[in-house]
Amino acid sequence: MKQIIVQKYGGTSVGSIERIRAVAKRVSKAYSEGYMPIVVVSAMGKSTDDLVNMAYALNKNPSKREMDMLLSTGEQITISLLAMALQDLDHQAISLTGRQCGILTTNFYSNARIEKIETDRIEKELSEDKIVIIAGFQGFNEHEDITTLGRGGSDTTAVAIAAAVNAKKCEIYTDVDGVYTCDPRRVKDAAKLSRISYDEMLEMASLGAGVLHPRSVELARKFNMPLEVRSSFKEDEGTIITGVDCMEKSHISGVSIDNETSKISLLGVPDMPGIAFKLFSKLAKENIKVDLIIQGGESSHLNDINFTVKSSDFKDALRVCEAICSEIGAQGVSSNESISKISLIGTGILGNAHMAEKFFHTLYDLGINIQMISTSEIKISCIIDREYGAEALNKLHNEFELHLAN
Ligand code: ADP
Ligand code: ASP
Ligand code: MG
Q: Which ligand is nearest to the CA of 397?
């Protein structure tokens, strides 16, 4: 029995007919090396953005169900074209939608989570020696409707499929040749990492490093699935994401910036039990994920509750807060949409006081005011004014000598 590997190709990697042909050749090479490749693909180039724009041109508040119906078509174009390109190379290849390969998800349109994968169809095709090509980012729910997994979700499809069929590894082919200490588009001397642990990669991805969908890293960690980020344009080795090698050794893996975050403050909230519960349970009911939370008060009877949400959830979160304001006796709501979350990621950060000191000193040197702070064993994050985000990112990268990392 051949070993299965899952290869995922992102939008740029399948952005044109020539690129699809190049991907077919790469898949064909893996097949001739004795592997059984399963391929997961994204929509071509920026075509998902084009579909989003078309939807908003027709309706400022499109239904999430219809959005999923629309956006899932992008991937369907790529799977069929890639199957044709492979057939042209004399391979047996078959394209499958999320429904056809049994990816059952939760009901939340536009941000569904995978519940299980019925692999019978995939296994049948593999047993007939066919190269299976799967549409990324999509599944179906209990109503037999198409759902999508959130922008960038094809990475998650790839890892979920790899885990479900017990693949040897999952390769993510993209337009960079690995995971860098910072987005190379933002910091010119960012360095490529040869390895990084699941935990650090999960923090980096969640804190703004768009190279991987955070949930793909979460799944890879859960199933101990080796993950590799590689370039679809070059043959170079990429970055391997695996288990921890040495948790006690402190080192910094990178810095990230998240500009897709917004802050909401409930002002003058009575200081009594149950207030936070009421607020955050209302937000949870609308599936709005809250990130940093800070509660602080001017006097012993009143508090301000500040929290951040993803910018895409901002309008809904603000609506919930405005509605609950009088119910919980708050004096008002204020918000700030132009903030950035800037983070330092590495093992043993909390155990090493000098790391935090250097981080805060760097921001102080730049005269940047910190609005919120959060820390964990492997990261420090701060909310700052977006205007200073790029400067802070570059200076932190420099101060921590991340260009020397590997
Ligand atoms: P794909 O369409 O292949 O999924 P993405 O655009 O989602 O590609 O991800 C690749 C991009 O991620 C790169 O072009 C790069 O600009 C960005 N990126 C952000 N942070 C990092 C990082 N730390 N290392 C590498 N790339 C990063
Ligand atoms: N096509 C989807 C997007 O652009 C999913 C993906 O590429 O991963 O977000
Ligand atoms: Mg991506």
A: 1
Confidence band (pLDDT; 50, 70, 90) for 406?
confident
pTM of the model: 0.94
Judge if the beta carbon of residue 28 lies within 6 A of ligand 1.
Answer: no
Supply the Cα-derived Rg of the chain in whole angstroms.
Answer: 23
Amino acid making up residue 392: A
159, burial (CB in 10 Å: exposed 0-12, middle 13-18, buried 19+): buried
**Ligand nearest 43 Cα, by number?**
2
C-alpha span between 275 and 228 (Å, rounded): 44
Ligand 2 centroid to Cα of residue 90, in Å, is 29
Question: In this predicted model, what pLDDT tens digit does every residue of 25-54 receive, in sequence order?
Answer: 999 999 999 999 999 999 999 999 999 999
- The span from the CA of 106 to the CA of 108, in Å, is 6
CA–CA distances in Å: residue 309 to residues 41, 223, 306, 315: 29, 28, 10, 10
pLDDT at position 349 is 84
Model confidence at 245, pLDDT cuts 50, 70, 90, reads low
Q: Is 15 in the pocket of ligand 1 (CB under 6 A)?
A: no
Largest CA distance in the chain: 75
Please choose, from the candidates 221, 201, 197, the residue with its C-alpha nearest in 3D space to the C-alpha of residue 209: 201
CA dist 270 to 279, 292, 328, 372, Å? 13, 20, 8, 21
Q: Which residues crowd ion ligand 3, with CB under 5 Å? A: 10, 152
Is the Cβ–Cβ distance between 313 and 289 less than 8 Å? yes
Question: Mapping DSSP to helix (H, G, I), strand (E, B) and coil, where does residue 156 land?
Answer: helix
Q: Which of 49, 180, 183, 202 to mutate to test the pocket of ligand 1 (most atoms within 8 A of CB)?
A: 183
Mutation test of ligand 2: which of 8, 77, 149, 151 has the most ligand atoms closer than 8 Å to its C-beta?
A: 151
Q: Sheet with 146-148: list strands edge to edge.
A: 114-117, 103-105, 138-140, 146-148
